Amino acid sequence: MATIKDVAKEAGVGVGTASRALSGNGSVSDDARKRIDAAVKKLNFVPNQSARNLKNQTCATMAISVPTIRHPFFAKIIYYVEECLSRRGVRMLVVNSQDKKSKESEMLEMIRQARVDGIIFITHHAHDSIDENLPIVSVDRHIGGKVPFVTSNNYEASREAVEYLLSRGAKRVGCVCGKTAVESEVQLRYKAYDDCMREHGLPSRLEVADFKHGDEMEVMREYLQNNPDIDGLFAGSDMLANAAYYNALLLGKRVPEDLQIAGFDGVMDEWCPHPKLTTVQQDIEALAATAVDVLFARVRGEEYEHKTVIKAKLKIGETTK
What are 190-223's pLDDT values in tens digits? Predict the structure, then answer.
């Protein structure tokens, strides 16, 4: 991505002159302005208004884009990100993409045009043309080689959950996770399950289902009907785990006596107080705060970690023995 130094060099002027021309502060000759304008067009230069806003604490607006605001994990991420930004005096724009790639592309264009100063971007879609130098941070997703992301210790925490099911007497343990179109740390959840079952010499009953948020009940109904003999289930999200619980009851199974269930996220207590799931509880507040910190560092040109891992913990509830 072109910098103001590149523009100045192309136009044959000093950086200060280019800066005055682009900001409108100070006098610049007509000839120099024309050459600077031509250089901006040639290099497709986008002024870094984001860094200027944050430095001056004026008109700074960050955005967060999520596939849906109706999912408790995304709702909590939004809540904590807004809390962090509010403490810094920064406004937040929420984009509910409704899992539509076109809406996400519009958001990315807003970033390119500097209409917002940065974005925490969570997607289920691959955006091949994304400019990796833009002020973007992701949660879990690998959306570009240079785009930093924050995540939980998905593999280790998922292994702990599966091992716990086995330790509580489950032998025929299944696993259902959502399919992602973009490379994601979430994929490590079902990899951990597969590795764990193989190391114990037990068959894998993994289903990586392609579905939209809100279809969890249907997904779990079909899975439990096709796998009636399982006595344990590791679900890649609490929404799937909760759907498994209610579908198991409809099929006449007792939880945890006939079927033990462990989820991932730790978000259902406020949404559905019963049952209290055994689940991997992510530290969503820390995920959000870290994403904001990395985004600010990126906008300001400061150093940051490309990948930051926040430790999750297994929380024992009512769905295991």
Answer: 999 999 999 999 999 999 999 988 999 999 999 9
Is residue 294, in this structure, part of any structural domain at all?
yes
Domain end call among 12, 27, 45? 45
Alpha carbons 133 and 299: distance in angstroms, whole number: 10
Quote the tokens at residue 11.
């136009």
Assess whether pLDDT exceeds 60 at residue 56: no
Task: Give the residue from 5, 10, 90 showing the smallest Cα distance to 48.
Answer: 5
Rounded distance, CA 220 to CA 241, Å?
A: 8
For 127, phi then psi, to 5°, come to -115, 90
Domain containing residue 12:
4-45
- The continuous run of DSSP H or E covering 273 comes out as none
* Same domain (yes/no): 138, 254: no
Q: Is residue 163 located within the same domain as residue 270?
A: yes
Task: Assess whether 91 and 136 both reside in one domain.
Answer: yes
Residue 21 within any structural domain of the chain: yes
pLDDT digits (tens, 9 = 90+) for 114-132: 678 889 999 988 887 788 8
Cα separation values, 51 from 24, 35, 114, 168, Å: 17, 25, 10, 53
Q: In what order do the strands lie in the sheet with 278-281?
A: 205-209, 173-178, 232-235, 260-265, 278-281, 313-315
CB-side exposure of 284: number of CA atoms within 13 Å? 19
pLDDT at 59 over 50: no
Does residue 140 sit in the same domain as residue 158? Answer: no
Query: Is residue 315 a part of any domain in this protein?
Result: no
Q: Are 255 and 275 in contact (CB under 8 A)?
A: yes
SS percent in the chain: helix, strand, coil, step 5:
40, 20, 40
Average pLDDT over residues 132-157: 93
